[in-house]
From TrEMBL:
An example Gene Ontology molecular-function term: protein kinase activity
Pfam family, one: PK_Tyr_Ser-Thr
InterPro entries: Kinase-like_dom_sf, Ser-Thr/Tyr_kinase_cat_dom
Organism this protein belongs to: Cucumis sativus (Cucumber)
Protein name: Serine-threonine/tyrosine-protein kinase catalytic domain-containing protein
Residues in Serine-threonine/tyrosine-protein kinase catalytic domain copies: 3-64
Length: 110
């Protein structure tokens, strides 16, 4: 999604879900300097094999806000797509917290 290419481009589409279930992850094709500060690391942390090591949704939002702030300060990259993405994520997070029937709330109560 970030690179503008489908994950596992050489794999048949029906095999991609199986790859994720087998804990395979697509390679980062772009050079690291193409990613905004910390995005690649955050993605890798979210893909950690051990769920307890993955960041929480709150931590992800906080890190994305920090990345957005850095981008806004440096203005070296176009940040408009990131801004709308952060706003959408923040709105989703807020609505899930206030909606006790959401999957997010359900999974926290287990």
């Amino acid at each position: 999604m970030i690179e503008g290419n489908p994950p596992f481009p050489t794999m048949p589409e029906n095999e991609v879900p199986k790859a994720y279930i087998a804990n395979e992850r697509p390679l980062f094709m772009a050079p690291p300097n193409r990613y905004a500060f910390g995005i690649q690391e955050l993605i890798q942390e979210c893909w950690d094999e051990k769920p307890q090591k993955r960041p929480t949704f709150r931590q992800i939002i906080r890190r994305l806000e920090d990345i957005n702030t850095r981008l806004m300060q440096t203005r070296s990259l176009k940040v408009n797509p990131f801004c709308s993405c952060f706003q959408n994520l923040k709105a989703l997070f807020t609505s899930e917290r206030t909606n006790p029937g959401s999957r997010s709330s359900y999974s926290e109560s287990k």
